[in-house]
Write a structure and sequence with these properties.
alpha/beta; five-stranded parallel β-sheet; four-stranded parallel β-sheet
Chain lengths: 335, 335
């Protein structure tokens, strides 16, 4: 009896253990008690489970590990992406090797070397400094790779991105639909593509509504609360608006602080929408309306994509992920 | 010229590169451009820098990697600890191998096996399910190990803990000093030692003030916002208090929601103090008074401790880390 539809999850469920344990029993790894291992083997026999070629190749010649490179883990943003990656990889008995590179070019390169030394089976990279050439070299060596938040034309089938133009457009559209006409934008660092794209979405939405974006309405900042506060102070000193689209939740929170310091009531005097939907967005007062960034889903997708590459399945260009509006209390109809 | 006081940091600074790059040059690893490598070697020569025996042993036979096991990374708590560990290890050219075990006994054990297979140089473990016996086995094999938030008597020199009794005591003391006498406590899951210790601190502080803790004032919950909300509903249904010590910030936020739903004004009708000082604590309204959990510092200390073990320096019992009071707006003097 050999049922090709059976998965490792079915075996795990029937044996009352985790898929990782089934994987360990099948690969003969240590760390599973003998009575439990015997139970798993009995279930494998009974159900007629045979691992697919992918699983066999993993058991024989690979490190069963995927390298994941992120800038940092001090807040919840990259932690959420990793949580998604981990959730999917575990189902396949694969492990993560996480490296932090602090947006530092040398450390990003060094992490790649380290992944190679450790013979990872694939890499998921959130790295802005590694050159396109280096990334193309990985592909030439047939190493499964997924890039998150990066666009390399020759690797377009390997890139997972958020549609930041659409996100910026919808955020601005939300304010327009509430009747606002004078809408400011605090952007992220415009050296970052995502920041430029959100700005582009903002401009498109205004022009679609027949409004020419005034240059006084735009302040370039960096993605942090402190920059948001200073940017808002500059905005308030030179113009008057009824609404603000801040390019991140951190910027929005900084802007809230500066607006309050200037005596504005929120949201009566100023509607504010952020971007990302970070953990703290629902806790600020008023609770922040924002564009939800599907971090968990992008992590899951990155892991599925790596697994497809390991299985040598054909892969096609990925759809961009869409941010979606989460309405809370920081935006209201223009009086 | 051979100056034994010189560190790898001095060389890095003089050469204008990162310590990791110096380490790579010294170990002959790939990934450093030849002109940069030449500059580093010139500085090493010029300063007379000689790596210490620890660095030499690392360069010759080790994986230069420390395994770090955490339950999850979906919020900022463990991310902060990892940030501290990473900050210190990088100074010594060491890398992290992070594994997530989801508070699952099998996955914790499996991660240990995996660390061993990858020949990590040491392990930093936040794991509640791995048996004392297994941990003693690691020590017997002379593998450097540090345990965070766990107490194993025979490994007391290897355990880094927060003094939760002191933290619970000071949190309650803060409410007592504000004139509160009827003080409730929402505890974490009392199967967790830290939750029991915070409760013990609460009781000690009340008794020190001549107040016998009333059993109606205590509700056992689990460390989550939803549990905090339900616990507060139960409290409000059966007793009246002027202040609450919640055993975590998540519990405190849940309690805030339930208190507002019941028509209480915060902090006028109810003072609330949390525990942990999570990222969101300063954003809730009123901003949450809480006990700061030194996650970053504990991560740094764990890494320093591993490095001391790698260097075979004598190690002594570690002081418990102390939580400290952060006063914000959610607590006020009893009217």
């Amino acid at each position: 009896m050999n049922n090709p539809e059976l998965t490792i999850q079915d075996v795990a469920k029937a044996a009352g253990v985790s898929p990782a344990t089934v994987s360990r029993v099948m690969t003969g790894s240590a760390g599973v008690k003998s009575d439990k291992a015997a139970r798993v083997r009995a279930v494998i026999e009974q159900l007629g489970y045979r691992p697919n070629p992918f699983a066999r190749s993993l058991s024989q010649k690979s490190s069963r590990t995927i390298g994941v490179l992120v800038p940092q883990l001090a807040d919840d943003f990259y932690g959420q992406i990793i949580t998604g990656v981990d959730r999917e990889l575990r189902l396949h008995g694969l492990q993560l090797h996480i490296a932090l590179a602090h947006n530092n070019p040398e450390e990003e390169t060094s992490a790649l070397t380290n992944f190679a030394e450790r013979q990872v089976d694939g890499m998921i990279l959130i790295a802005h400094h590694i050159s396109d050439q280096t990334l193309l070299g990985l592909k030439a060596r047939r190493l499964p790779v997924v890039l998150i938040n990066r666009s390399v034309p020759e690797l377009s089938n390997h890139c997972i991105n958020l549609d930041n133009v659409q996100g910026g457009f919808e955020a601005t559209q939300h304010l327009l639909e509430l009747g606002h006409r004078r809408i400011a934008h605090i952007s992220g660092d415009l050296e970052i593509a995502g920041a430029r794209e959100r700005l582009e979405g903002y401009r498109m939405a205004l022009r679609d509504a027949g409004i020419e974006p005034h240059e006084d309405w735009l302040v370039e900042a960096s993605f942090s609360e402190e920059y948001g506060r200073h940017a808002m102070q500059r905005l308030l000193a030179r113009t008057q608006v009824s609404a603000l689209f801040a390019a991140s939740d951190s910027l929005a929170v900084g802007a809230m602080i500066a607006a309050r310091e200037a005596g504005l009531r929120l949201p009566q005097d100023l509607s504010i929408i952020g971007f990302d939907d970070r953990n703290f967005a629902r806790y600020v007062s008023p609770a922040l309306t924002t564009m939800h960034y599907p971090m968990l889903e992008m992590g899951i997708s990155a892991a599925q994509h790596i697994i497809a590459q390991l299985r040598e399945e054909p892969i096609s260009r990925l759809e961009r992920f869409q941010a979606h509006l989460v309405e809370r209390a920081s935006t209201q109809r223009q009086a």
